[in-house]
Amino acid sequence: MAPGEQPLRGGSRIGTGDLAKQAAEDTTSTLALVHPGGQNLDVPGLKAVGYQVFPRGAGVKALGEDNITADIPNRDQGRWIVLLGIAGIGVVAVAAGCAATATFLRRDRALAARSTRADRGRVVRSTALWSVLVPLASAGLVGPLVAAWLTAPVSNGGPTYVTTGLLITCGAVVVVVALLAWPYSVLIATRRPHAWALTAEDRTAAK
Predict the structure, then answer these.
(1) Distance of CA 88 to the CA centre of its chain
(2) What is the DSSP letter of 14?
(3) What is the rounded CA–CA span in Å between residue 100 and residue 95?
(4) Which site among 38, 75, 110, 127 is 20 to 30 Å from 200 CA-CA?
(5) Contacts by residues 83-86 (CB-CB < 8 Å, ≥ 24 positions apart)
(6) Measured between alpha carbons, how far is 127 from 135 in angstroms, rounded to an integer?
(7) pLDDT band at 6 (very low <50, low <70, confident <90, very high)
């Protein structure tokens, strides 16, 4: 090792005379250090040399470290916003599924008076299919396409927060709710007809 050089872990060496001369000429200078082999620099070793050479030490930072550190809270908050947004879509989908199921069950009371016991199951399944599953599943499939079309002018080919994965996830949540609401509606309609008392309106519709 040559005189006036400080050893660093990893085999790199720095001349303390050059560092002291540079510090005396310009107190606000910045030195860019690159490892010859392209490996990571020994940051603790660089800080130790800085405190040995400079009166107040030297700050050691990676390029762009300040910007990356400042963006970490924004990244974490963005993830929470996406998570809560997907949860909100799930709540809205469940509410829509409950409303569609309730509408189907109100109609099924009139269908119970019109259909026979033999074809009751088929009628219930087909009616629930078009009353519950098809509207919700269509919303889950068409909704992401509409969202992508609406956000296309905003992104304009650049970075966007509305990613393809986000749209697929939101649509998948709605489709899953639709697939769960359909058999649930059929199950209620087939197991609880004996507890329903036909009203005068239902009797009139059955005649």
Answers:
(1) 12
(2) E
(3) 9
(4) 127
(5) 85/170, 86/166, 86/169, 86/170, 86/173
(6) 12
(7) very low
Cβ burial 59-72 (10 Å sphere, 16+ → b, else e): ebeeeeeeeeeeee
b/e burial code for range 116-127 (CB count within 10 A of at least 16 → b): eeeebeebbbeb
- Residue 27 phi/psi, 5° resolution? -80, -10
Domain boundaries along the sequence of the chain: 5-53, 71-206
Give the rounded distance of the alpha carbon of 115 from its chain centre.
46
Instruction: Give the C-alpha separation, 170 to 175, whole Å.
Output: 9
Structure tokens at 30: 């910045």
Alpha carbons 186 and 128: distance in angstroms, whole number? 6
Tokens of 182: 């359909």
Identify residue 102 by its one-letter amino acid code: A
- Summarised one tens digit per residue, pLDDT across range 28-50 is 667 677 777 777 777 788 778 77
Please give the structure tokens belonging to residue 131.
Answer: 């009353």
Gap between the Cα atoms of 91 and 97, Å rounded = 10
- pTM beyond 0.85, yes or no: no
Dihedral, 161, 163, 165, 171 alpha carbons, nearest 10: 90
Residue 52 CA to residue 111 CA, distance in Å, equals 90
SS3 content of the chain, % helix, strand, coil (to 5): 70, 5, 25
